[in-house]
Amino acid sequence: MAVDSTATSPSKKSLWGNPCSKRKEEMKVTKLLTKLVVDLDGTDEAPQQIVDKAVQMKKHEEQDIKNCLDLAVACGISRSSHEFFFLTKVFQRERWRAIFQYFQSPEERLSWIQNAYSDPTFLEK
């Protein structure tokens, strides 16, 4: 009788939370720090300026997400719908926000939302 070792594997399941989510969060922090190093390479800025830049970048990202959600509402998506909730997850990724904002009309955006929502593997991409 075969036993599924992944069901009890500590890397897949934990009493203290989802390790995959923790890893994703660590990757976000690493990506942010990498951007900071690249943006500030060759400068002698004080640590507080680095922190200020990180805060500014985070605020910009939050505003970009809000802008995309506002565009979704403008094309007919209700804030209380399953699609809107789905988009709150989708727009966490910069590339999906860029693609969504590329479309010119509310009809194009709505069509994209419907296609993305109907694809069960979309959030895995």
Q: TL;DR of this structure?
A:
With 125 residues, the protein is mostly helical. It has helices at 19-40, 47-74, 82-90, 94-102, 106-118.
Coarse structural class: mainly alpha
Question: Stretches where pLDDT falls below 50 for ≥5 residues?
Answer: 1-16
Distance between the termini: 34 Å
Specify the overall morphology.
elongated
Q: How many helices?
A: 5
Number of strands: 0
Task: Tell me what you see in this structure.
This protein is mostly helical. It has one domain (18-124). The protein starts with 18 loop residues before the first helix and ends in a 7-residue tail after the last helix. The chain contains 5 helices and no strands. Helix content is 65%, strand content 0%.
